[in-house]
Design a protein that fits this description.
The chain has a 5-stranded parallel sheet, sandwiched between helices. A 5-stranded parallel sheet has the order 10-9-11-8-12, with helices on both faces. The chain has a 5-stranded mixed sheet with strand order 13-14-17-15-16. By secondary structure, it is an alpha/beta fold. Helix content is about 35%, strand content about 20%. The two termini are about 25 Å apart. The longest helix has 18 residues, at about 150-165. Bound molecules: S-adenosyl-L-homocysteine. S-adenosyl-L-homocysteine binds near residues 301 and 332.
Length: about 475
Amino acid sequence: MQNYPIFVNLQNQACLVVGGGPVALRKIRLMHSAGANITVVAPEICPEISEEFGPSITHHRREFDEQDIGGYRLITAATNVPEVNQRVSELAQAKNIPVNVVDQPELCSFITPSIVDRSPVLIAISTGGDAPVLARMLRSKLEAFIPASYGALAATMGRYRDQLKKALPEERDRRRFWERVVQGPIAEYFFSGRQQKAEQALQQQIDAKQSANDAVGEVWLIGAGPGDPDLLTFRALRLMQQADVVLYDRLVSKEILNLTRRDADRIYVGKKRAEHAVPQGDINQLLVDLALQGKSVVRLKGGDPFIFGRGGEEIELLAKSDVPFQIVPGITAASGCATYAGIPLTHRDHAQSCLFVTGHLKDGTVDLNWPLLATENQTVVIYMGLVGLPTICEQLIKHGVRPDMPIALVQQGTTQQQQVFTGTLATMNDIISGQQVHAPTLIIVGSVVSLHSDLAWFNPEAD
Ligand code: SAH
């Protein structure tokens, strides 16, 4: 991080602006709206400054003098004379007064960000001076995306804080209460301009909390997709950022885990090298126990929770135990890996159907319906099939699939480490024998794989 971001309280604080042109005007406007007592030193000031601020600022109509530096909380230099700007910067820094020289980052001890103002909500964006255009673009995106009434909503929340503290003494309960407010009908009342109705509803909810404190939390079973964090759904992200505790396993990438609420507890329930995973029954029970403690529990699953993800087993006990839960679908490995490898799973010239199967070995054998897999004009996607790959190729050929049928292995699909190996049923084992192919790897069998050479578009640079 190049700079340390802070917001400075300038209410009734003396601030100096050196310069009186249009650039100074912009700075004066901001400082003024933050409540500063502004002194301007400049031989001339532009008419807008006197019109807008008149007697509410002090104007010394003269050249800058070294004696001007002193006793100020912040100083801004906005003249068009480089030597003056430089002098202001040196003198201010010698006295440890934060100083900003407009458009001259090397003379600044602080810089001012691009802002989106929904006071009291204030969003500051900085690129450390490297790419102001990018900062402005981000700003305009946020401007378009954040309703103007966010400010009113935030201000009202501030007014009700103390009241809610009495009604809900536990910090966690208050957080959950506010989360519901900002995502529910009360926020919608604000956004549609019905402030009075919003406040009535808010008061009602606070009164109701005073008598009945809901003790049971909720479990969110969330599909985290195959690896690329951009493939999360909005809903997944929203819930991840409200978690008190997160249960995850090996398939969930670090980047995705880092998108969960910062101070949520993280519990790893996957396999460690040479150790066993937490037994499924224990995970199911843990979800129930945590929710009964009143927590918001996120269970993060790779891909989609309902595709080879044991999602069904995990919610069964929740349903039985009357613990509320929600399930968020995710992009499954078949869809993510095929797309990022440029292999359409169906194609009018190649495959009219697509089969997802698991190649998980049971007692050393791959127990699959081979005649079904050998059907023509079909793409077969095999999850957890790496160990059984020799058997899979052998059995498919045995059941009538041509030996030169294309096959692809997609390793760590959609991530920066993605690798795609292609070959045929007859050659694949040899192709990968010298390579260190490892889980998670998805197998795709079918003539659609031949399209990969033309359609591959995602080629991350291997590190
Ligand atoms: N619920 C998950 C699948 C879990 S089974 C989903 O919907 O995707 C685990 C198997 O999924 C792995 O053995 C592998 O075959 C496949 N898989 C998951 N993520 C993958 C990835 N990023 N790249 C390749 N294969 C992946």
